[in-house]
Design goal:
Layout: H1 16-43, H2 48-56, H3 59-64, H4 78-91, H5 93-110, H6 115-126, E1 131-134, E2 150-153, E3 159-169, E4 176-183, E5 189-194, E6 201-206, E7 214-224, E8 229-232, H7 233-247, H8 249-272, E9 274-275, E10 278-279, H9 284-312, H10 321-347, H11 357-364, H12 375-382, H13 386-391, H14 429-433, H15 438-456, H16 461-464, H17 467-492, H18 497-519, H19 526-535, H20 543-554
Parallel strand pairs: 1-4, 2-4
Antiparallel strand pairs: 2-3, 3-7, 4-5, 5-8, 6-7, 9-10
Helix pairs in contact: 1-4, 4-5, 4-8, 5-7, 8-9, 8-10, 8-11, 9-10, 9-17, 9-18, 9-20, 10-12, 12-17, 15-18, 15-19, 17-18, 18-19, 18-20
Flavin-adenine dinucleotide (FAD) binds next to strand 3 and helix 12.
Amino acid sequence: MILLDPKHHTRHYSDDASRKLMLDVIDFFETKGKRRLKEDYHARVWYADFLDFVRRKRVFATMSTPAGYGAPDSRWDTWRVCEFAEILGFYGLQYWYTWQVTVLVLGPIWMSANEALNERTARLLEEGGIFAFGLSEKAHGADIYSTDMLVTPKGDGTYTASGRKYYIGNGNEAAIVSTFGKMADTGDYVFFAVDSKHEKYECVQNVVASQNFVSEFALHDYPLTEADILSTGRRAWETALNTVNVGKYNLGWASIGICTHALYEAIDHAADRELYGMRVTDFPHVKRMFVDAWTRLVAMKLFALRAADYMRSASREDRRYLLYNPMVKMKVTTQGEDVINLLWDVIAAKGFEKDMYFEQAAVDIRALPKLEGTVHVNIALIVKFMANYFFAPEEFPELPRRDDEADDAFLFDQGSTRGLGQIRFHDYRRAYEGFDLPNVRIFREQIEAYRALLTGAAPTAEQLKDVDLLLAVGELFALVVYGQLLLENARIYAVEDEVVDQIFDFMVRDFSKFALELHSKPSTTAPQMEACLAMIRKPAVDEARYQRVWEGHVLPLAGAYRMNE
Ligand SMILES: Cc1cc2nc3c(=O)[nH]c(=O)nc-3n(C[C@H](O)[C@H](O)[C@H](O)COP(=O)(O)OP(=O)(O)OC[C@H]3O[C@@H](n4cnc5c(N)ncnc54)[C@H](O)[C@@H]3O)c2cc1C
């Protein structure tokens, strides 16, 4: 089974230490139990118990220190990072978030040439420290060009920093806050490290009402020396973007973890409940919603796992991950919202109960598409790859599953963020050609209709200035990439044909939905509208396949996992 079941952990690790670490994390939460998990959630308790466990077991140090700086088992190994993020999401986004923010801080540090600071950071991680990433500001949102955090040279080789940051996780306790700003004299960007316990650092407030501390903080003439500077100029800018490249991948895994736990709870409840003398799971619409939720979740996981292979194998010559990574961020997380919507429609009132994990899943799942660049920002990014993806494929060696013990050093040496439009991809058609299944065939016809739009009635440069239209074009493109990678992984994981075909049932419907959306945009021309209508198709109906998926894969999840009380 591809979905996480914490009580039957079967994931392959080539080293025992990694598997043991995952089991330790699971054990921490199962020992804590659902009752206390929910009490802490409602009382907004700072998760000191979790951080104490993290320190004792050196969890963040092992997971987040690149090879060479920490203990021998420390490395940045995306294979285990995926599951770690999934497990944390499974038990609560708050636990994931304190780690995720730490990851974001470590980006600028591990990418920096400031060796002394790297050594200090590795030491602080070993001691159980958490960190904060100071990028966002209240007034500027996604527009980080406009930062008002200013670093002023004092003329003697030292500096002072002044300004405010907003929405900064861990800002109450962070051993290091990597902070982004501008030099007051030259206007150059700069990344620098501050200590949240320094007297010139003011933790103003927690902006949110949750277990997380998402701070507003202010620096008042905070003194800096050269030793605190992580990077400057173009390098500081690239560091910010390259860090988000690494970090935003984890958001997809938080969604996957949340949805998996919510699915167990939802199907348990529905299968146990009788209305009008029949089980809720016998209602045809309930079956359909569960099958849809399950197939969407399996697809999320197949896609995100495959994206990891490309991240781990990335190099200066192979930057395909720069397309797949934002897709994990925008597509997997929005699919997560769809999964929760479907499940919530089934369990209805039960989804509000305070003792259910579901109640927090329903809230937290909304965060992931919005953080670290909204869906819009990420679609605007991926459309830059469209022309080469469709019309200039290149040969690449076959990429196997990357579950080896490697340290993913390239992620901290990604280099220039320029030249996205020059990145080349392998031919997506190869993945689709490998599956002769009814819904995959229909989906391929939809892709051909989309290509016909791009070649015969392509949106003009003027039209593409309209971000609203661009987003609709991008959603269709995203589906093609989504289908490609999940098919590549369906082969690697030997997913049954009936499951793949059922996944493409929703893929065909989603393609039709986005085609209709594009059709309805104010500026689409008559030929474009016609091309959009040609993309609208109905999935192949196969009752026997559907029943096999329901009875063989989805319904058996009832009673399969329950968190310890
Ligand atoms: C709980 C929480 C925790 C957070 N933690 C951190 C943290 O630890 N560190 C940190 O630095 N930040 C953090 N953030 C900030 C987060 O990354 C921002 O919310 C995010 O960058 C978007 O900014 P915004 O929400 O202000 O939206 P805005 O930037 O105000 O966006 C407004 C609208 O414009 C759209 N838009 C903006 N730019 C573009 C574009 N280029 N193309 C297309 N559409 C665009 C957006 O999609 C949105 O619809 C956190 C936020 C929250 C809520």
